[in-house]
Amino acid sequence: MSNDKDTFNVADLTSALNEDNRADLVNALKSKIQSLAGQHSDILESLSPNVRKRVEVLREIQGQHDELEAKFFEERAALEAKYQKLYQPLYTKRYEIVNGTTEVEEGAVKETAPDNEEDQEKGVPAFWLTAMKNNEVLAEEISERDEGALKYLKDIKWSRIENPKGFKLDFFFDTNPYFTNSVLTKTYHMIDEDEPILEKAIGTEIQWHPGKCLTQKILKKKPKKGSKNAKPITKTENCESFFNFFNPPQVPEDDEDIDEDVAEELQNQMEQDYDIGSTIRDKIIPHAVSWFTGEAIQGDEFGDLEDDEDDEDIEEDDDEDEEDDDDDDDDDDDEEESKTKKKHLRRVEEHNLVMASRVSDLQSASSSRSIYAECHLCS
Known about the structure:
The chain has helices at 10-17, 22-39, 41-45, 49-98, 127-133, 136-139, 144-150, 260-284, 288-293, 295-322, 327-365; strands at residues 102-105, 108-111, 153-162, 165-173, 183-192, 197-203, 216-221, 233-238. It is of the alpha+beta class. It has a domain at 125-377: Nucleosome assembly protein (Arylsulfatase, C-terminal domain, 2-Layer Sandwich), CATH 3.30.1120. The strands form three sheets. The chain has a four-stranded antiparallel β-sheet. Residues 295-347 are annotated as: Disordered.
């Protein structure tokens, strides 16, 4: 599938992006761009001398832009690292309250006394499960069978990795009857963090307790009448589960013989896998309390509504290109656009009513939850 004359050497590019020195990164990119320019010099040669001179100046401008962009990425990474450190004390307080190691009393946080009654409800039960189920992307991945195990989820953290570039997610679990792992990790290796371009993902192998595997199900089939074997026939099948997240799709080492349809399916699976991981990193972890109460749903759906309107606008533009350019068409489009906006307004109003009732119920149940500033295989 690769062609040495026309494509990047991925290994070289990955190595360059792993360098900490910005100057080395810029030089590597410049060298690669120049080599590509040499391969496609026929484009420049086809231009007139005056136009070619202008393009050369434009290339110099592009080089200056790339240097500034590399500096931007460097400073942005430093700024993100700074604020990640500032967030940590808030995440620690959130962890302590959620898991009942500290108690909230009249606005103050105090340590939980060890002699509390055992039957007293501690912390915020099913905090992370509820937060994830309120997110549309994650809700599709969580099966009813998964919920029992996810109730033991105590915390989720993420961190950057430098060699190779990427990030990892750590899921911390209390002792549970499903698996022995106390931490399940998902690591993403990126070719380019800022695009982003995913190279591969690695997940923890889950050590399931016997008969507790959630990524497989056992099917029992009665033997046919008259069969000598009277025992039921058992068959194990893979099934949908959030915990498949820790057994991500893998790119074969030799990808030259991959069927086009198989390659497309693999790409879709990797994109979906990254979407789940980035959703947990960018939405769930920093705003877990708002996802738990349901407040984050409203803001997220407003964004979806805007995307829907953009998609509909594009579809309308395509329809106009296919139709005759007369005045009647413009009137029809205006009327359709008006109907679409009214439809969206109705959806927003209905959603607001539902969410207002839902958040009110959750907040009245436990005022201590209002801490919005604090922020693959089976054995």
